[in-house]
């Protein structure tokens, strides 16, 4: 492109694509008295440690006798809470669910009549402790706790401190997109002008190959 024929400055705009921390610069150039706008995008991302762990522990007791099944679920609850306390969890991190009683005798006289399902939720900022303890959940079975469900589907790790890293991510994305815009302008043999528009979209937090690691984009 002949730069002598350029009669207007390139106008830039910074944009953020929804669901990702991507900034875009849109610029225009003039060729033969026509103006065109082109968007340029930049990306910023971080791999961070989860700062909240949630472990839902489900267990049950089954027996023909209602008094016995109540005794079993109480005993299992005490074993479980003792196990969690011994591992280092404090009382405020242990949340008790509501017992769910079922009477199977109404439908099948051959099976154990009563069952009680119960759950305890561990909610803690000590992500490493909860991850380490989950790996040892087999100990609960050996102690007589009838666990239900696979631990991997009942454990969540969350990152809640996005606001602490958002400013630096915006800064990084802005720098990256400006570099991309200047490179595109150089390759296209056009001249950059003033900023035209700025738009910010939404951040997203994604899982990684490690449950305690998250990817912010």
Describe this structure in words.
By secondary structure, the chain is α+β, with helices and mostly antiparallel strands. It folds into two domains: 3-47 and 161-216; 52-158, Protein of unknown function (DUF541), domain 2 (Alpha-Beta Plaits), CATH 3.30.70.2970. 29% of the residues lie in helices and 38% in strands. The chain has four helices and 13 strands. Strands 5, 6, 7, 8, 9 and 10 form a six-stranded antiparallel beta sheet that branches. Strands 3-2-1-11 form a four-stranded mixed beta sheet.
Quick structural summary:
The chain is an alpha+beta fold and 217 residues long.
Considering the chains and any ligands shown, give keywords for the structure.
four-stranded mixed sheet; alpha+beta; 29% helix; 217 residues; Alpha-Beta Plaits; 4 helices
Number of strands: 13
Q: What's the story with the biggest beta sheet?
A: 6 strands, antiparallel
What's the CATH topology label of the largest domain?
Alpha-Beta Plaits
**SSE topology string:** EEEEEHEEEHHEEHEEE
Tell me the overall shape: elongated
Give the proportion of residues in helices.
25-40%
CATH H level, superfamily name of the largest domain: Protein of unknown function (DUF541), domain 2
Weakly predicted, low-confidence segments: 1-33
What is the highest CATH level, the class of the largest domain? Alpha Beta
Distance between the termini: 36 Å
How does the helix and strand content classify structurally? alpha+beta
**Name of the CATH architecture of the largest domain:** 2-Layer Sandwich
